[in-house]
Amino acid sequence: MKRILCAGALALSMTILPVRAGQGGEVLVPDIHLKTNGMPAIMASVAKAVAPYTEFRGHTFVDWHPREPVMLVRHREAGANTAQIYKLSTPGGELERLTDFPDPVYAASFDPVDGKYIVYARDSGGNEATQIYRMDLDTRRSTLLSAPDERSTASWTERGDRLLISSVPLDRTATAGKRVGVATTLSLVDPLRPERNRRLVELPGGGWGGYRFSRDDRQIAALQYRTPSDVDVYLIDAATGARKKILPAPDASRAGYSDLEWSRDGQRLFLTTNQGGEYYELAVYELASAELKILSRHIAWDVEHISLAADGTKLLAVVNNNGRDEVHLFDARNGQELPRPDIVAGSISGARWHRANGNSFAFSLNSPQSPGDVYSYEASTGQTRRWTTAYAAPGLDPQRFASPRLVQIKSFDGLMVSGWLYMPDAARFPGKRPVIV
User: How far apart are CA 194 and CA 197, in angstroms?
Assistant: First the structure.
């Protein structure tokens, strides 16, 4: 996959470069900074024919409005170089641009109480020094909420009145090219009065994240990540900053953990883990008994993401089945799986329940027929609604694109290796065709 991506980047970089005469017509001239070895000349006519397939501009679901069926989505519009945040009020409606910066904006959320302002994250000039800002939707004015000399992320309290800002020093604070005693600082900040902030605790080292407040905002579940199979889960007292490691258990081997979700009563943590198995599985941790119970052992694939409905009754899990994502629903009260939603196949990301509607969740879908779009699903009716349609160059109709089929090949060691095969339309493309693996 990495080789294919590199080759694609090379081809794209040359489509904007000069051409020169060659045998059979004009060919592209590689940039002088690109070192090519054994690569045949690429005809300018081929690059022109391929160019429309590089111009898809899709959409990504970002957040729900806390009270209304309104979304934040991320999109790169025509003529723009970066993705920005837009407000979308109805399925298929017009996008209302909220941010407009030279740098892309990836993370954003409505304030969880009234949705009168958004909080977003961006860096400047590609410096990867992410800063947190509040934007008032009435005036479109932005206010910096994080320290300018730190790299920060933000997480909302359940009450929605404060932000937990997690910050680490920038690289330039290192001494002699090294960081000595790196620490992660957690601060509680009132986004409407950023001067009213309280430093909660300084955590040793880096890799901290995944912060989730309990329903009463008294505890914070957090992850300290080292590798996919070496993660610690902590509980942090939101008043004192005192922390306690709860996973892995003292007598258990190292494992990976991700996607923390609190039960409504604050007595359980839902999460995913590869503890004791080959795949990341949906699990629930009972705080009183310190028992970890696997809920998705019957699903022999990675659970990539989970989200708990606001009413605490339903849990969705995105499962990577042989490279194609599926959404599974569970009863969060007893751990039993519910009937699976009928959602079109593709790559699913960002699935999240609406805060006020416990039956509706939104997600981003990438498939041959939907190259980057936003959908919602109503669990009570089984209805899927498409909110956006990705831009495609004139003459291209994604609905005519081929869907792949699953193929499995036995490897030299007897194990089955799976892949997705895209076959050309025999009527439109007869004869032998080139293959990319």
Answer: 6
**DSSP one-letter code for 338:** P
Question: CB of 326 within 8 A of CB of 366?
Answer: no
Q: Answer yes or no: are the C-beta atoms of 284 and 301 closer than 8 Å.
A: no
Neighbours of 287 (CB within 10 A): 16
Are the C-beta atoms of residues 293 and 283 closer than 8 Å to each other? yes
Write the pLDDT tens digit of every residue in 303-357.
999 999 999 999 999 999 988 999 999 999 999 999 999 998 899 999 999 999 8
135: which 2 tokens?
């934007």
By CB atoms closer than 10 A (0-12, 13-18, 19+), residue 180 is exposed
CA–CA distances in Å: residue 196 to residues 3, 146, 199, 337, 405: 50, 12, 10, 44, 56
SS3 110: strand
* Cα distance between residue 30 and residue 27, in whole Å: 10
Length of the chain: 437
Q: What secondary structure does DSSP assign to 291-334, as a single string?
A: EEEES-TT--SEEEEEEE-TTSSEEEEEEEETTEEEEEEEETTT
What are the structure tokens assigned to 366, written together?
């990438």
Q: What is the pTM of this model?
A: 0.87
